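Transcriptional repressor IclR, Corynebacterium provencense. Tokens?
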Amino acid sequence: MAAEGVTKSVERALQLLGIVCSEDSMTLTEAARDADLPASTALRLLRSLCAQGFLRREEDGSYRAGPRLIQLGARALSKNNLINSAGPYMRALAAECGESVYLSVKVSQEEALYIHIEEGTHSVRHVSWVGNTIPLDNSAAGKVFRGDEGEAAVVEDRVEKDVTAIATGVRVGGQLVAALSIVAPSYRMDADIIDALSFDLREMASDVECALGGELK
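Tokens:
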């Protein structure tokens, strides 16, 4: 029973950690409600997570991701072969076209996760959604992961109002492993620009696939 109790506490703590980190910040009341836990239990777990650096308590009493969690995430991403291979090509395309370029992976049957961005150079641009999930339904990356991209998937004003996304897949050994997307304000995206960016995106995906060399670590 003691072992079961420890396991349950760990599960609750991890659940609470995920809930808090799904938002910019969260109060005790909000975290306890979303985790379906008594406030006293949630407070005890939040204090433990803060003590280990996985969460941080702000002056206003809210909680957000802590330095230890951010450090671990940064270390994990720095060793990600997909990001290391795609990053330079994404950076070059963002500099060339001025729009933000994203890398995403499928994390469930319903969602994909943005894991890297190279921000565009326009003063008005799409800013980082890294760490955010997007629905496979109604998103350009989602069309890629559902096998409905054609030459490139294009979605306008679906996930976000007045935003257009163009996406294509990255394949390793014939298997789809990621999606590359250009995300931009819709007012800059006419048919000719979308066609040109779709071509550039497909070219970049080919370069990334060559850089990966058929291997993904």
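The two ends are 39 Å apart (CA to CA).
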